Amino acid sequence: xxxNNNRIEFSGFSLFYGQTKGLESITFGIPANRVTAIIGxxxxxxSTCLRAINRMNDLIDNVRVEGTLLIDNEDIxxxxxxxxxxxxxxxMVFQKPxxxxxSIYDNVAYxxxxxxNREMKKNxxxxxxxSLKEAAIxxxxxxxxxxxxxxxxxxxxxxxxxxxALAVYPEVLLMDExxxxxxxxxxxxxxELLFRLKEKYTIVIVTHNMQQAAxxxxxxxxxxxxxxxxxxxxxxxxxxxxxxxxxEYITGRFG
Length: 255
Known about the structure:
10 strands
């Protein structure tokens, strides 16, 4: 693991969509077993930064990167990196619940069923139950496991998505605006869940909600126009930022 307990290290990292620069020479480290929030106005590079961590940007034409992005001291953009294994290690939860039109059980078991891992398949029932428990949704779905997951409310669907991500034993969990489409009660359940999950996982969350970032994260990175403006402990960012632009953003003067 990297020094200073950092699990993930961006170092002079830039990302281009063709000739357009999405990220410009960002450098910061993301600590293990903490929640790190990435904040900034729309179009600032938040999701691009998040998706760089599991190379989801590779799915877009003409993407290229410069600099390094390390996970456990390994440069994940080297040509010999197994991207499938990387995405198993670095799970992702999207803004809107993206469940399949299948049962709750089949949704959570999906990653296991396509993994080719015989040991996991043998223990599939146990893993599905444990993942739903970890995602704090088991008690609400245990009597309807064979029912369609699409019958659930949005907040419950999102927690099933989290269970599905956890079922393949990731080490890092990326969340792209995971509560932006949810009501306040469902949002609070997702936020409570993050406090428990960080005991086992390194979590990176993109959010446009300043109050949410302040509530759930330990560290905060503020991006503007693809550049890292400031990165520090969340309490420092929100109470004593070192950059005037950061202060103006978090107090709502723009963005």
